[in-house]
Design a protein that fits this description.
About 35% of the residues lie in helices and about 25% in strands. It has 17 helices and 18 strands.
């Protein structure tokens, strides 16, 4: 942990604190701290700060972007997302909602005068301590009361109408996206939407990628515009393009306008291709490096946590520019080849030029046959000038080859097998 991030930080003093970029430019002022409520009165997880930027616009900055916290100064890293902050299901704004709130401790009434967040040492922060004052004292001064644990208080996070959702969200927190998508199929529409709203953007994006078309259209229709755009930005561009094709042109155009320009550009490009063509199936974000990149560079690139396994199986070597559409496509370097070579080996010396790229107009059956014939997990798509447009992974092909309701059928069969196994165990 950075020395500039202490282990225990009281939050009331952060109201109005200036936020700066590393170069010293002032971004704005902190107006609140956002945390996510958890079930059974567990300490909420801190998500980030609400920061007011000129002209009086409140945005959200994730806590992972905070590089240092000092008295009166907070420094952030990375690019700002200037979309207006909107609170979501089971989130609380610590300064605005908790300070001066009435709570119970040891059968007596108190007022919350401050709340402290604490690091778990693994990169996450939680609201673990609360400073409370006797109910007759309304000043937020810690000397006038005592500091107690979050769990010892009653009345802080008891939002009755959300407890069922909060409990379910806690239960599914470790489920894989595909399993969660299958579970949501069986929920009532109202509860399905509540769960979707309670997931963070990245998690919801991964779940939507695993859903049938009709269900994900239903969920996206219930998500407010700016948040829907954020979720689409977290999805693989090919999945986002498929979803936007299904929701109608007017809504699709509105959401594209709200997305980050570079993300929207990739999605728009994919939407110009036919649904079942190579162009419609590909993603525009494979691992792309130049011929003078090294094996070490390639291995670092395929370690990306958000990279699907099929796309991590190979690196695409191209001439500059290295963003799709790239310069001339040179060839592929397979993961197994990378593991056999020395870290300093140049990619240009080990590139596979025999595996040919396909055109964007290839149809689904042709793509599937090509993958099967050469035992590939992914393959490159190029234009008539041999520029790399993207890559198709085998999981995207299978999604389109299987029956439309295959996920529901798989979920039902899995439930039957689990019930049968449980019955045998009882006997």
């Amino acid at each position: 942990m950075s020395a500039s991030k202490p282990n225990l930080v009281f939050l009331a003093r952060f109201a109005g604190t200036s936020v700066f970029e590393p170069n010293g430019d002032r971004v704005g002022r902190i107006r609140d701290v956002v945390a996510l409520l958890r079930s059974q009165n567990q300490p909420p997880r801190v998500l980030g700060f609400v920061v007011e930027v000129p002209p009086r616009r409140r945005i959200f900055i994730p806590f992972t972007r905070i590089s240092s916290i000092d008295v009166g100064v907070v420094v952030i890293t990375g690019q700002l997302n200037i979309r207006r902050f909107q609170p979501r299901t089971n989130e609380i704004q610590v300064i605005g909602e908790l300070l001066d709130k009435s709570v119970e401790h040891s059968h007596s009434s108190f007022i919350v005068s401050d709340v402290a967040m604490e690091s778990d040492g693994k990169g996450e922060w939680y609201l673990t301590q609360v400073h409370i004052s006797p109910k007759t004292k309304l000043l937020r001064v810690r000397s006038g009361g005592k500091t107690v644990s979050w769990e010892s208080l009653q009345g802080l996070s008891a939002v009755e109408e959300n407890q069922g959702v909060a409990s379910l969200l806690a239960t599914i927190s470790n489920m894989r996206a595909a399993d969660l998508a299958g579970m949501l199929i069986d929920l009532a529409p109202k509860r399905r939407i509540e769960i979707a709203r309670g997931l963070d953007d990245e998690r919801l994006a991964h779940v939507l990628e695993e859903m049938d078309e009709s269900l994900r259209v239903e969920i996206l229709a219930e998500i407010e515009g700016e948040r829907a755009a954020d979720v689409l930005g977290e999805m693989d561009p090919d999945d986002a393009a498929d979803l936007l094709r299904d929701i109608g042109k007017d809504r699709a155009d509105a959401l594209l306008a709200l997305m980050e320009p570079d993300e929207a550009e990739d999605v728009k490009r994919l939407m110009t291709y036919e649904d079942y063509s190579a162009g419609g199936l590909m993603t525009t974000d494979p691992v792309i490096l130049s011929a003078d990149g090294t094996v070490a560079d390639a291995l670092a690139a395929v370690r990306r946590q958000d990279l699907p396994s099929p796309l991590a199986s190979q690196v695409y070597v191209c001439r500059a520019p290295l963003e799709t559409p790239t310069g001339r496509f040179v060839g592929i370097v397979h993961l197994q080849q990378l593991l056999r070579e020395r870290p300093a080996t140049l990619l240009g010396s080990i590139v596979d030029t025999e595996t040919e790229a396909i055109g964007a107009n290839w149809q689904l059956n042709e793509v599937a046959s090509y993958l099967a014939n050469y035992n590939l997990l992914a393959l490159p798509v190029t234009d008539e000038n041999h520029r790399l447009l993207g890559a198709i992974s085998i999981d995207d092909v299978l999604d389109h080859l299987l029956p439309q309701d295959w996920r529901k059928q798989a979920s039902e069969k899995l439930s039957e097998k689990l019930e049968a196994s449980h019955g045998k165990a009882e006997r």
